[in-house]
Design brief:
Chain lengths: ~775, ~140
């Protein structure tokens, strides 16, 4: 059942283009039924999970290898699964409206549904390897979605940047996960979670931590890898709302939260996560305040939220865990809504620049209301859920002994800027005087209002009745993060305490910052172009150097001259294999004793040698080809002599075709003439003889090796009993080793495509090079 | 590039059906005796190549009906799909399945998924060789 739930997204994705052909503009509403059904199904887990139960569901995958597909449903994964399917439902509907009439709308459905399935797989996996596979799948679908407008060079560049950053981190993560699995003796998460002591005291704790965090930080856009996230805004807005605010970028946070009971609680965990998280939080909100594009502002404020979550997970403790999951839920709700509102504004007015927007509340009243509600939640004002989350955040930070007050100061500072950012995002476009915009604005269609309206209402509902979310699901999620049962109830009103006083202070400062925005922004953007020194500049310098290096080595190694390729390949082989052979065996490979050679075998071998020498010295093209043919047919004869008729037939046929191909190619070649110097011919002879000698030596050395005799005996025995065939060669090819053969014919097909492309497209000038 | 040789043309006319029949024979008997999809595919390619030498590319293209490039794709698909039925029978991918039929007058016939796989190999080999040779031959003009 769980397997079906996770994979259903992929199946529907494959069917989406056909459905689109039949359903047209209504496709989004129909496709949304799947995430909605998933939402309902996941919701049925809530009562038992809230009661503290943890479900592990297993499916046999490759039973003969003992591989299982297993899924873990506890508070944390359930919270994510619910968010993914809830927001997914609305994104599919919203996408249909936002991209209505777009030529590639079916492709959007395919990708967004595949992404949803990958993301569900990621959070529900109970196995480190499957988790990693789904992790990479989200990176790939994200790449395709950022580059959705693939004819736009900028979009392609941003997509590649996102991919390179997250996949590089993914590689580090893979190494870390494999190390974890080997130490724990199992790749099952449910077993790893139970063996925290093993990891924290292990000598390899630090390397594993750094590797896993490299994956999590790149995915969740932590400083210094944060730069790809704002660039990912090149994607269509529904994608940004779904992947780059509510779900995918939280995968890193999910991983850290998931591993907190295992890897967390150490000094290093606190220092790295606390520091990086706090830094990311401040960088994000500061960059948000500096920007004027509505999507960029929201993207940077997402960076801020991701930093806050990382910091909270790093702090550890019951309260921080609760604050983290509460903040996560609140953020997903208001940020999803705000992004969809931003998309609606962009869609209706044709601009994303906050400086050019104003007074839209009269033209788009419903959107304005939704924006205000979601914006209040972002700002952390009562009675929204964002307020509950922010109070808890302040409480958790203040409760942390030691460096807590530094973090508290940073949180207060960033919260002030967040209030200002919320005001900028909501007040600028909707209030004040109506501005001229490229398009004449009117209210967004229902498909684009439903999602944000419901998400914003949920933010309001959970704010008014915080126990609704807190009692069951969030407490269970926090328990999964903390590793022990958490029992903290959420409430809107805590009485007058330090967090409330700080909140009031934050609000006042935030409003001041909002009014000073135009001046302070210019001042922040100031004369010093900090971007020249940021990590993004480093990224470009690195990728630039990489392509330069690639260009250089291509010019050197792949210069288009067949003779150079051959020389390089042969000399490298001779050097590497020859060194190994002589350093291991010395002259021990020389045949000892009498060789069992028949006279006719010597004749054939002698014929091959004569023909080969002839091919090298002949002056006529046709004669050289014929001599090569003699070599080939003589080899076929040897196969037959050693009773391998299939091989012999194949060799004859291949040789025939080779001669035909050579004759075809010969039409184009000029007549033979001496172009190379005596020296270079001498060099070629030396290399050729050395390579031939090496191969002979290798052959002799294998004579002494005793191969496992049982395999061929088994093949001979079972060919008829198991596979009903008397021709063992064929049985091996099409039955015992069919998978190998499948791989080989794929290679053959690829080679054919390569040759075909070389023949057909050679005359056209190379376009792709710029 | 066709060479207007009467001998070659006459020979090609007779060789083509003979070689094609021979290739099918090799394909079908391959499981028990020397032969199989790869060899049969090469024989079929030789048949068409001889015909191509005698009559030029266009008649061969017409006779093949299927573009050799598509033939490669169909072959790969057949080969990959031949492994699938076993999965539905609860066996591992590519487990061979056999169906033995007793036909009146003809005798016993063994149909199997390895045979389907071999037909896939046959098509890939034929398609690859023809794609390359035809591209080479067309490149002359």
């Amino acid at each position: 059942m769980m397997l079906t739930a996770v994979l259903s997204g992929f199946v529907l994705a494959a069917l989406a283009p056909w459905l689109f052909r039949g359903l047209g503009a209504r496709t989004g509403w129909v496709l949304a039924l799947l995430p909605a059904a998933l939402l309902a199904w996941f919701a049925s887990f809530v009562p038992s999970v809230a009661g503290g139960e943890v479900h592990v569901l297993q499916h046999a995958w490759v039973p003969s290898l003992g591989l299982q597909l297993s899924f873990l449903v506890d508070g944390l994964s359930l919270l994510f699964a619910l968010l993914i399917s809830l927001i997914g439902t609305f994104i599919v509907i919203y996408g249909g409206g936002y991209l209505a009439g777009h030529r590639d709308l079916p492709r959007f459905y395919v990708l967004i549904l595949s992404f949803m399935a990958s993301m569900l797989g990621l959070v529900l996996s109970n196995n480190l390897i499957t988790l990693f596979v789904f992790w990479e799948l989200t990176s790939i679908t994200s790449y395709l979605l950022i580059g959705f407008n693939h004819e736009d060079k900028e979009a392609r560049r941003c997509a590649l940047q996102g991919l390179l950053v997250t996949v590089t981190g993914g590689l580090a993560l893979l190494v870390g996960l494999v190390m974890m699995g080997l130490i724990a003796g199992s790749f099952e998460l449910s077993e790893i979670l139970a063996s925290g002591e093993l990891f924290r005291d292990h000598a390899l704790y630090m390397p594993i931590l750094l590797l896993v965090l490299a994956g999590a930080f790149t995915k969740s856009a932590q400083v210094p890898f944060h730069f790809w996230l704002p660039n990912a805004m090149a994607a269509p807005t529904p994608v940004s709302a779904y992947l780059h605010s509510a779900t995918m970028v939280k995968a890193g946070v999910y991983l850290m939260a998931r591993l907190n009971p295992t890897m967390g609680g150490t000094e290093a965990w606190f220092l790295i996560l606390g520091l990086v998280g706090a830094l990311t939080m401040l960088t994000g909100v500061w960059m948000a305040y500096r920007s004027t594009g509505i999507k960029r502002v929201l993207a940077y404020s997402t960076v801020m939220a991701l930093g806050t979550l990382t910091m909270l997970i790093g702090m550890g403790g019951e309260k921080a865990a609760m604050a983290a999951v509460t903040f996560l839920l609140a953020h997903a709700l208001y940020k999803g809504a705000l992004f969809m509102v931003a998309g609606a504004i962009d869609h209706e007015t044709g601009t994303k620049d906050l400086e050019q927007l104003g007074g839209l509340r009269r033209k788009m009243p419903v959107t304005a209301v939704v924006a205000v509600v979601a914006g209040l939640s972002l700002a952390g004002l009562p009675p929204l859920f964002g307020f509950v989350a922010k109070e808890l955040l302040l409480e958790a930070v203040l409760a942390r002994p030691g460096p807590g007050w530094i973090l508290a100061g940073l949180v207060v500072l960033s919260s002030m800027l967040v209030v200002a950012v919320a005001a900028i995002v909501v007040l600028k476009p909707f209030f004040g005087a109506l501005r001229e915009t490229p398009r004449h604005p009117h209210e967004a269609p229902p498909s684009m209002l439903l999602g944000p309206a419901i998400l914003a209402s949920l933010g309001l509902g959970f704010g008014l009745l915080p126990w609704l979310a807190g009692q069951g699901l969030l407490a269970a999620a926090a328990s999964a993060v903390y590793g022990h049962p958490v029992n903290i109830s959420l409430s809107l009103w805590h009485g007058v305490n330090l967090p409330l006083i700080l909140s009031a202070l934050i609000l006042i400062a935030g409003i001041l910052l909002y009014f000073k925005w135009p001046r302070l922004r210019d001042w922040f953007n100031g004369p010093v172009a900090l971007d020249q020194y940021g990590p993004e500049a480093l990224y470009y310098r690195f990728t630039g150097a990489l392509s330069n290096f690639a260009g250089w080595q291509t010019r050197v190694l792949q210069n288009g001259y067949m003779r150079n390729y051959l020389l390089t390949i042969l000399l490298t082989t001779v050097a590497v294999v020859g060194y190994t052979l002589f350093s291991r065996l010395g002259w021990g490979w020389l045949p000892s004793g009498e060789l069992d050679v028949r006279f006719y075998e010597l004749v054939v071998a002698g014929g091959i040698i004569v023909a080969a020498v002839g091919a090298a010295v002949m002056r006529s093209k046709l004669a050289a080809v014929a001599a090569m043919g003699v070599v080939g047919f003589a080899v076929a004869l040897i196969y037959v002599l050693f009773s391998a008729p299939d091989l012999g037939i194949t060799q004859v046929l291949v040789e025939t075709l080779t001669v035909i191909l050579l004759v075809l190619a010969l039409f184009k070649l000029p007549n033979f003439s001496r172009l190379s110097s005596r020296m270079s011919r001498l060099r070629d002879v030396t290399v050729g003889v050395a390579f031939g000698g090496l191969m002979a030596a290798l052959m002799f050395s294998t004579l002494g090796v005793q191969f496992e005799p049982s395999i061929s005996a088994w093949f001979l025995e079972s060919a008829y009993t198991e596979a009903q065939g008397r021709n063992v060669v064929n049985v091996i090819l099409v039955d015992f080793r069919a998978l190998d053969t499948l791989g080989e014919i794929y290679v053959l097909a690829l080679a054919a495509i390569g040759v075909y492309a070389m023949m057909k497209f050679r005359s056209q000038p190379a376009e792709g090079r710029s | 590039m066709s060479s207007y040789s009467l001998i070659l043309r006459t020979a090609a006319r007779f060789l083509l059906p003979l070689l094609l029949m021979f290739s099918v024979f090799l394909l079908l008997r391959g499981h028990d005796l020397p032969g199989g999809g790869f060899i049969a595919g090469l024989v079929a390619s030789c048949a068409f190549v001889v015909y191509l030498f005698a009559f030029d590319v266009a008649p061969v293209r017409r006779m093949l009906r299927l573009d050799p490039r598509s033939m490669v794709g169909v072959g790969l698909l057949l080969a990959a799909l031949s492994g699938v039925p076993a999965v539905f029978m609860g066996d591992a991918f590519f487990t061979g399945l056999w169906l033995e039929l007793e036909l009146p007058r003809v005798g016993e016939i063994k149909l199997s998924t390895p045979l389907v796989f071999d037909i896939g190999v046959y098509l890939v080999v034929l398609g690859s060789v023809m794609a390359i040779v035809m591209a080479l031959a067309e490149g002359e003009e």
